[in-house]
Design brief:
By secondary structure, this protein is an alpha/beta fold. The chain is 23% helix and 24% strand. The protein is built from eight helices and 17 strands. The longest helix has 17 residues. It is globular.
Length: 315
């Protein structure tokens, strides 16, 4: 069954549907294997599958349709995909910008085949039975680095996984999708932070959460029809009506910022991160729900990494 139209303009409207990707068939069975695929620790497929089931059940309980991309693999692609343990982190592979699906490009060698296979499955989901993904626009970006800020604005990080040489191409693509402004940040490579959503997220329409170091990282802002300009990180958000709530990783959960909004004032985080997020967001009138996905967090990602929104209402 083909999926209908896609549309996303923000991070905080009501979440109608997402893509997820069930864990591959392989265990990550040793420290060497974990290092090879970028995992923090070993994990069995059985434990990952249990956590995946809890995530899908939680999404469904809040009225969000979770579509498993594994169901749209061709037989040949399934053989390959079942060896790619990072496939659960489907967020990075593609994004919906406005009403347009955009394919990403993997910068981490173990994920190159995984991205290609995921794009074929997404094409079948969208009703293109040959799995050819060339119809969709492409960007040299992994989409854990992209946030839809609402009001026609995007934030993108370039660095470890998203290629800074192609910033202007991405800006032009975003403008073509109907966005009016793109702000570009560059997290220092020396920090080893692979994606922006491990250091930043949107807390409704009133605030953002950000690792404290980001205040040292000016934004290069590209407004449509105007020359680009530099703005300080905090001033950028304050001038657009959002407070910046800073946090330090040593005093909180490593995946505090890796949550999603189910509704404008309802957040879904991992069970470990949820108490810390509630504390940080105190006074904003937000509810935080937690789900036990500790096994999946072994792969260095959490709720946001594990979901790719297809359709989200306007906040």
């Amino acid at each position: 069954m083909a999926f209908g139209e896609v549309e996303c303009w923000s991070e905080d409207g009501r979440l109608d549907s997402v893509v997820v990707f069930r864990p591959a068939e392989l265990d990550v069975a040793s420290e060497e294997e974990a290092v090879a695929v970028g995992f923090a620790r070993v994990v069995t497929r059985a434990a990952a599958e249990d956590a995946f089931g809890r995530l899908r059940q939680t999404l469904a309980s809040f009225g969000c349709k979770a579509i498993d991309l594994e169901e749209f693999l061709s037989p040949a692609d399934r053989v390959v995909s079942n060896t790619t343990v990072n496939r659960v982190f489907v967020r990075d592979t593609a994004v919906v910008l406005g009403a347009r699906l955009v394919r990403g490009a993997a910068a981490f060698p173990p994920r190159v085949a995984e991205f290609d296979v995921a794009h074929g499955a997404l094409s079948r989901l969208m009703g293109r039975h040959d799995g050819n993904a060339e119809w969709a626009a492409a960007a040299r970006v992994e989409f854990g680095d992209v946030f839809l800020l609402g009001q026609g604005r995007l934030l993108v990080n370039v660095g470890l996984r998203s290629d800074p040489r192609f910033v202007r191409d991405f800006v032009d693509l975003a403008w073509g999708a109907g966005f009016e402004e793109v702000a570009v940040v560059r997290i220092p490579d020396s920090l080893g932070i692979i994606h922006l959503d491990l250091a930043f997220n949107v807390l409704g329409t009133e605030a953002v959460v950000a690792r404290a170091f980001l205040r040292h990282c000016p934004l290069h802002v590209y407004p449509r029809g105007e020359p680009p300009r530099w703005e300080s990180f905090e001033a950028y958000f304050v001038q657009r009506g959002r407070r910046v709530l800073a946090f330090e990783p040593g005093s909180t959960h490593p995946f505090l910022s890796n949550f999603i909004s189910l509704e404008p004032r309802l957040l879904l985080a991992s069970e470990g991160a949820a108490p810390h997020l509630r504390n940080l967001a105190r006074g904003l009138g937000l509810e935080v729900v937690g789900v036990d996905i500790d096994a999946l967090e072994s792969g260095n990602g959490s709720v946001r990494c594990l979901t790719m929104p297809l359709r989200r209402g306007v906040a």
